[in-house]
Design goal:
Layout lengths: L2 H8 L7 E5 L2 E7 L2 H12 L6 E4 L5 E7 L11 H5 L3 E4 L8 H17 L2
Parallel strand pairs: 1-5
Antiparallel strand pairs: 1-2, 2-4, 3-4
Helix pairs in contact: 1-4
Length: 117
């Protein structure tokens, strides 16, 4: 499964316009139109050619998974990512500090929704 599709179901409106920072990459969540999604994707592809992207089922959020080097200092994060958001959530000190762990957490929540629990 494409992680961005999974994350598009995991993140909600409270996460809009926020950059989520992990040890091994970023998840960018932006409230935007499909046209703006395509423009953002095209711009990000120049730096992250293997990005994953998806839109939430309701069409409100765009989610971009950007794997790769994450600078220690937030001020060194790619300026495009900072400009697209109202802030960032640094998860590097949380229990879910990598994209792999986030994927497992999001998958578990998705499976719980499907089973109705």
């Amino acid at each position: 499964m494409n992680r961005s599709i999974l994350f598009a179901a995991y993140f909600d409106a409270e996460d809009r316009n926020r950059l989520h920072v992990y040890h091994d990459g970023f998840v960018l969540v932006v409230a935007c139109t499909p046209e703006r999604h395509r423009k953002i994707r095209d711009e990000l592809l120049e730096v992250w050619p293997h990005l994953e992207d998806a839109r939430s089922d309701d069409g409100f959020l765009s989610v971009f998974v950007l794997e790769g080097h994450v600078p220690d200092n937030k001020s060194e994060i790619n300026p495009t990512l900072r400009e697209l958001t109202d802030g960032c959530a640094d998860h590097r000190l949380d229990d879910w500090d990598t994209l792999e762990v986030l994927t497992a957490v999001a998958l578990e929540r998705w499976q719980q929704r499907l089973s109705g629990s």
